[in-house]
């Protein structure tokens, strides 16, 4: 799962000072998936200058083995190139996989259990040495080491022999399922068909690492660059990161990253309100600044002003994320489908969206898959509640379920300052269900305890708020972890909250995974989503929208639906 901290990190709800009160003009800013910022983001980009990145959260664990997919708001992709990458374009066009170090997006065998890649000519590390497939194989293998854990788990599951492999520090032999017949060819042998392998090959674990330069857990201090920038300073475990040009990177081998600025300076650990204030004011170096993790909050958006120039500096992003209510049918009364359906009908999505920050920051959801074609989005609403709920229908279903006088249930939520899984959304659900005769007792837990309650098969919550984000724009990493019965984990973090183990669902997941055409797979994922939705195993609530300011001198703003955040590799500050 894409880590929520990357994209949906806490919003700044504190009202800004008078100097930035007009930032709320953002709600008049650009909408839709074509997410370029306005006039301030346009113009002919030029090379040179220093780009500042102002973030709430440190860019920790700056090691390709430990980063989760392309996390960190695109910063890692400036240093780490991979076999494939995302298309660096706005909106839906950015959901496409394109070649990066490789000449193509991969060549599968007949059943997609084997994928072959060939490297481009002229690839070099920052020290000028050639990049070979042995470096990519080693980079992947070191991601299996316990001391370098934290990355996406797919390779351990997908590669033959991956489940028991402990990394090159303990097993010098390496993985037989990664074959490098020569310096430019690499072959991956998988346990089962995986048509999404080109998407996975965008993960930072596929970045090349020269074995001679590997310093284990200390590698993050100075990783060897294969991208347009190299690390010259890493202080406070990513709180202050300085990147400068890699002289051995060539745009001739990289048509995705433009690398306009001479220098990029990342400063983290900042208060969200301060970040937005600095971006809005755009004084000094802040005129050439951006953020990759701090949204404009509802309090800021509510302060509607008439400053069009400021509104034009707001970029709108969409990312494959769904916020939902989850049921554990192993817990009464949620074992009764009629009860789950009644709750589905009773939900007031208008009040939920208002609790999440308003319509500028959330879009109503009735499907589990995000509302983007790349995922296979197929519109459906099996339990139409309208905008404000249908309490009469809910009461009718409760009566059929054996609860003519209503019932009392508990809803587990987080106590963190988080509008998506926190008290605001929980209270909106509570008030809506009350109208249907359902008394909801709110159970607020601190974040760690909350995650334990919602992901624990044994003694977990029966009804809770949850959310899921995609590691790449496909239905696979969205539906499989949540509804594939073979992924139920009984002694660890289990994401299949309903503990659904339907042979027909499992089989269809396997069949879709054989498809190497993303469009054909999307059609099947959408149909599967619709079919599973009939069982009322969850109640989709909303998909988040991200609104972020850029400094007044920032040009060439590109925000793809793959990440939902500004792509640093495209930004110019001159």
Descriptive overview:
- The chain is globular.
- The protein is built from 15 helices and 18 strands.
- 55% of the residues are buried.
- α9 runs antiparallel to α11.
- The protein is an alpha+beta fold and 574 residues long.
- The protein starts with a helix and ends in a 25-residue tail after the last strand.
- It has 2 domains: 4-267 and 550-570, D-Maltodextrin-Binding Protein, domain 2 (3-Layer(aba) Sandwich); 321-546, Dipeptide-binding Protein, domain 3 (Roll), CATH 3.10.105.10.
- The strands form 5 sheets. Strands 8-9-10-1-11 form a 5-stranded mixed sheet, with no helix packed on it. Strands 12, 13, 14, 17 and 18 form a 5-stranded antiparallel sheet that branches.
Describe the main β-sheet briefly: 5 strands, mixed
- CATH architecture label of the largest domain: 3-Layer(aba) Sandwich
Q: How many whole angstroms does the radius of gyration measure? A: 24 Å
**Protein structure class:** alpha+beta
How confident is the prediction overall: mean pLDDT?
90
The fraction of residues assigned to DSSP E strands is 15-25%
The termini sit apart by 36 Å
The 3D shape can be described as: globular
Number of strands: 18
Residue windows where pLDDT falls under 50 for at least 5 positions = 2-40
CATH topology of the largest domain: D-Maltodextrin-Binding Protein, domain 2
Number of domains: 2
CATH class of the largest domain: Alpha Beta
Sequence of strands across the biggest β-sheet? 8-9-10-1-11
* CATH superfamily annotation of the largest domain: Periplasmic binding protein-like II
User: What is the helix tally?
Assistant: 15
The amount of helix comes to 10-25%
């Amino acid at each position: 799962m894409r880590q929520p901290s990357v994209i949906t990190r806490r919003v700044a709800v504190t009202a800004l000072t008078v100097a930035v009160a007009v930032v709320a003009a953002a709600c008049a800013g650009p909408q839709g998936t074509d997410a370029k910022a306005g006039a301030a983001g346009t113009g002919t980009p030029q090379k040179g200058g220093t780009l500042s990145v102002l973030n709430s959260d440190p860019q920790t664990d700056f090691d390709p083995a430990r980063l989760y997919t392309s996390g960190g708001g695109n910063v890692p992709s400036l240093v780490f190139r991979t076999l494939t990458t995302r298309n660096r374009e706005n909106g839906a066009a950015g959901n496409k996989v394109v070649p990066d170090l490789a000449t193509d997006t991969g060549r599968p065998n007949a059943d997609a259990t084997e994928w072959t890649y060939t490297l481009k000519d002229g690839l070099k590390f920052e020290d000028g040495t050639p990049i070979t497939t042995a470096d990519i194989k080693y980079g992947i293998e070191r991601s299996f080491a316990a001391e370098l854990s934290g990355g996406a788990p797919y390779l351990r599951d997908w590669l033959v022999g991956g489940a028991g492999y402990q990394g090159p520090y303990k097993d010098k032999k390496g993985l037989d399922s990664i074959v490098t017949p020569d310096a430019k060819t690499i072959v991956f042998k998988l346990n089962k068909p995986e048509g999404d392998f080109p998407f996975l090959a965008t993960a930072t674990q596929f970045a090349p690492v020269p074995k001679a330069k590997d310093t284990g857990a200390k590698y993050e201090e100075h990783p060897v660059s294969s991208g347009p920038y190299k690390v010259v300073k890493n202080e406070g475990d990513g709180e202050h990161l300085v990147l400068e040009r890699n002289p051995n990177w060539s745009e001739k081998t990289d048509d995705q990253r433009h690398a306009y600025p001479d220098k990029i300076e990342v400063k983290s650990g900042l208060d969200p309100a301060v970040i937005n204030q600095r971006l809005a004011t755009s004084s000094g170096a802040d005129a050439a600044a951006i953020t990759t993790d701090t949204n404009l909050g509802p309090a800021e958006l509510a302060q509607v002003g008439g400053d069009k120039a400021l509104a034009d500096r707001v970029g709108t992003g969409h990312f494959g994320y769904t916020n939902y209510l989850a049921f554990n049918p192993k817990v009464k009364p949620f074992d009764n489908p009629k009860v789950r359906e009644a709750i589905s009908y009773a939900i007031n999505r208008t009040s939920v969206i208002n609790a999440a920050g308003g319509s500028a920051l959330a879009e109503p959801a009735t499907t589990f898959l995000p509302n983007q074609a790349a995922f296979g989005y197929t519109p459906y609403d099996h339990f139409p509640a309208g905008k404000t709920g249908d309490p009469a229908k809910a009461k009718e279903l409760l009566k059929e379920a054996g609860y003519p006088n209503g019932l009392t249930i508990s809803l587990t939520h987080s106590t963190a300052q988080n509008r998506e899984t926190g008290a605001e959304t929980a209270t909106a659900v509570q008030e809506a269900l009350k109208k249907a005769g359902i008394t909801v007792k709110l159970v607020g837990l601190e974040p760690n305890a909350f995650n334990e309650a919602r992901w624990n098969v044994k003694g977990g919550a029966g009804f809770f708020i949850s959310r899921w984000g995609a590691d790449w724009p496909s239905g696979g990493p969205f539906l499989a972890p949540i509804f594939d019965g073979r992924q139920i984990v009984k002694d660890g973090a289990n994401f299949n909250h309903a503990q659904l183990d339907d042979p027909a669902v499992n089989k269809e997941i396997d069949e879709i995974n054989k498809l190497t055409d993303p469009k054909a797979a999307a059609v099947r994922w959408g149909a599967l989503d619709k079919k599973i939705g009939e069982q009322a195993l969850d109640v989709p609530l909303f998909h988040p929208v991200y609104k972020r300011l850029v400094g007044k001198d920032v040009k060439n703003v590109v925000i793809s639906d793959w990440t939902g955040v500004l792509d640093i590799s495209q930004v110019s500050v001159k």
